[in-house]
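Supplementary material to the annual report.
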Amino acid sequence: MKDYPFTRILVANRGEIACRVIRAIREMGLTSIAVHHAVEASARHVREADEAVEITGDTPVAAHLDIPQLIAVASTTGAQAIHPGYGFVSENAGFARAVAEAGLVFIGPDADTIALMGDKISARTFAEAHGVPVAPSVLPTDDLDAFAEAAAQIGFPLLIKASAGGGGKGMSIVREASSLRDAARLAASEAKRYFGDGRVYAELYVERPRHIEVQVLGDGQGRVLHLHERECSVQRRFQKIVEEAPSSNLSPDVAAEICASAVRLAEAAKYRNAGTVEFILGQDGRFFFLEMNTRLQVEHPVTEMITGIDLVKAQIDVAAGRGLPCPQGEIGRNGHSIECRICAENADQDFRPETGRIDFLHVPEAPWLRFEHALDQGQRVTADFDPMLAKLVVHGADRAQAIDRAIGALGELSILGVTTNVDYLARVLDNAAFRAADIHTGFLQEQAEALLPPPMDDAATDRALIAAALGFRDFRRMIFDVPPLQAAIGYWRN
Amino acid sequence: MSFRILLDGVERQVDILQRRPHLVLSVDGRTHVVEDAGPDGDGLIDLTVAGQSVTVARADGTEGQSLRIAGRTHHATLLVEGEGPDDAAEAEIRAPMPGAVVEIHVAAGAIVDRGAALVTMESMKLQTVLGAPRDGVVAEVHVTEGQTFDKDQLLVSLEAREGTDADA
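Predicted assembly:
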């Protein structure tokens, strides 16, 4: 592109997100440069990029985290901009600073914004100062009378904990005013005993919370768009595995309020880049700021599916100083989208990560489907990198259709040779509570029993066994290789 | 002809009852006609079992076979005689069809390797040598030369060889 301040972009990432970014770069007529460790020299992101450079490190991950090396690669390859993807160096203020100091464009926010939002305390203080709701709390104190008075004003239930604490020591949930003082006294004495610090802290306890987040896009001049909210309440080990947009079962008023809060926060920060403001939402409709992620999010495709806006291209345009893609009023909200994170893990064994070789890969195709991945048949899945293999993203006219389409696509998807959570994800989507949008961050644990594999009936077992038998060479040989009689009998006697 | 298959950790038995004109299999005693056994090899394969079409994704890997049928993933391994979760220390050599004993190659107490000739039998003017399915020791020979037998009649039994894997 002629009027672009940069034409060569280093993609400082790997896997599906590197492929995703490379695709946007190619579609914009720009040049992509991939980086890879020796163990992933033939990976898909290396093949799809216009150029690729090997990086070194004690481990493959260490190579991808090596800031001076990444900057050096950008310089030697003539890259003028760097896209960090998510993870690795994407939220590293030091990296953003080093990129700027090298005279390159960082496709992300400035280093100070990353630092501000990267620290929980400063982010919370900033949010509160700009009218974004934070969970009410009582600051650490050892004055139990003052504590009890302040705590009672917050309301119930309350979570009381030792301010120096950890491991649940001195922690309790208080549901009524009458037990507040006793709980505070107990927490203080346990805090004193275990941590030598009797100060206690309290915050509002949100029961059955939902995780709602808002996609924002800022130009760095104080103009910020929101691209509606996403719901990411389905989590295991505090990590999302199913995300959707828009959020299910959320009143339009609350949705509008949450989005407005996110925009307020990003405007106050003069935010530049795509970003995500995360909230916790109570069953009573109250919501509180959790944190802001100053990068592209794993689940960004569900937002793209309902808005039609390519977030990676928007990031690149903003970094190039070309501003936001459209006014807020033109950002639509069409239908419903669901993303499933396909991970190499055993959902029936506490989500233990799995390794292996992808012996067979079959990816379904449909106009309403995006399968974001960097997989190849024959590829080894090792413990070197994150166990997320791919993302299956569907669009439907409404949530029910999106669920049905996702279940169908998961059923057609085959990743054989390494254990994945594909079967489990289909069971999650088909779960009655999920279909009813009765979800919260403890949903998977609460439904654990209902999400176990259903027992197989004889017909299904026999079908699987017959298919398996016919796949074994020794078995087929016995049936097909020789005429039936000679197969059982050795040789003619006369 | 009988095969033992470990499917998702459970041992099952598949018997070939008939090969022509249709393949007829017995799975744990339940009989199924396989109208279309599908092609050889890995990939997406269509089978017809009991008149119903079944699409299977299949890959034969280093640690057994992975399959996906009707949205469910399975893992299968073919057990060879003497292997398996309930590792039978003994092995029985039974008559694959009615016939007569032509020659007995071993006596009780003989140490045999897998594949060693045990009995030559004759059936419908055809001779065949029955071999040891695994390493072992001949526990007993249940037939004599010239004797006739029915299908499935016990011909030779083996026991585990001391210090071999079959004992473990």
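The longest strand of chain A covers residues 224-236.
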